[in-house]
Amino acid sequence: MAENDGQERTEDATPRRRQQAREKGQVPRSRELASVAVLVVGAVALMWFGESLGKALMEMMRKLFTLTREEIFDVTSLGLISYGAIFHIVWPITFVLLMLFIAGLIGASALGGVSFSWEAARPKLSKMSPLQGIKRMFGKQSWVELLKSILKVALVSGVAFYLMWASLDDFYQLNIETFPTNLYHALEILMNFVLLICCSLLVVVAIDVPFQIWQHNEQLKMTKQEIKDEYKETEGKPEVKGRIRMLQREMAQRRMMAEVPSADVVITNPEHYSVALRYDSKIDKAPVVVAKGSDFLALKIREIAAEHDITIVPAPPLARAVYYSTELEQQIPDGLFTAIAQLLAYVFQLKQYKKGRGRKPNPLADQQLPIPPELRR
Length: 377
Fold this sequence. Notes:
Number of strands: 4
Structural class: mainly alpha
Largest sheet: 4 strands, mixed
Mean pLDDT: 81
Strand order of the largest sheet: 3-2-1-4
Order of helices and strands: HHHHHHHHHHHHHHEEEHEHH
Distance between the termini: 53 Å
Oligomer: single chain
């Protein structure tokens, strides 16, 4: 899409884009890190186990080159001797190979972590295209690999020549040493050379690792349109979300209107607000708001209340206080207990009067309903 609409990839990849890339096997990798890790650990392993490995090889050759005539023509005896000779080198080689395996595994997964992807392993025709191959040969990645190769050759050559120049005295010393002292000395010099040359390649790793991370982030960058499209896919289109919210509000309003007939009283601010309260001493510890609304919704609450002969009491300050302080299906706050209690007492007396069981109560005045200042609206 970015190529069609001319947009540039200027935005950092989103977490979803990174996760999709990881599932496809697109993670930053540094071949230099893996190869240098194997070389350095291999050099260290040879320094640690080289002596025991050398002695095991010498013992193996001593046994195999000092066979008697009877041992040569005795197949059973020859097999046992060969097995015993080879057994001496098994453990040193095993330790060296184990260290190399661990170094290769850690070096390969240190950047990008462990990732298994069947999609990355699946053959792709685009990789077999000659044109694509030519593009890759002259692409930016190929030039970077060429520069790294030149740097590695120059670095290894420079370090090797410096080490040889710095070890001239040791080379001269080898001429006057006797066998096998000179052999061990030469091997020690050689192993030090190998370790230092391998460690010099860490300079290449220090350059390659940040470059691979940067290149990976550049490849995953997105256009602004791609981010918008992804947001629509994950969050849904705004029109659809708006429609869903509208349907949810309508369903909530229908459920709320169905609860109005269960109310004991509807408090109104005649112009704008209506709040329906229920108080059943068997199930409610305090009065509960079963419905509330403003403007058109407030009018519908009053109409339903009138249809079901529910008492409607105009009390603007109290109606506003309950409307703003209490949500649906919640009990009224403690600060309004006294005012609501007086209101319910008035409603109870009014119902008794309508049944002919008492005198008509005096209308409630706003001043009679104590409303805390923090709950006034």
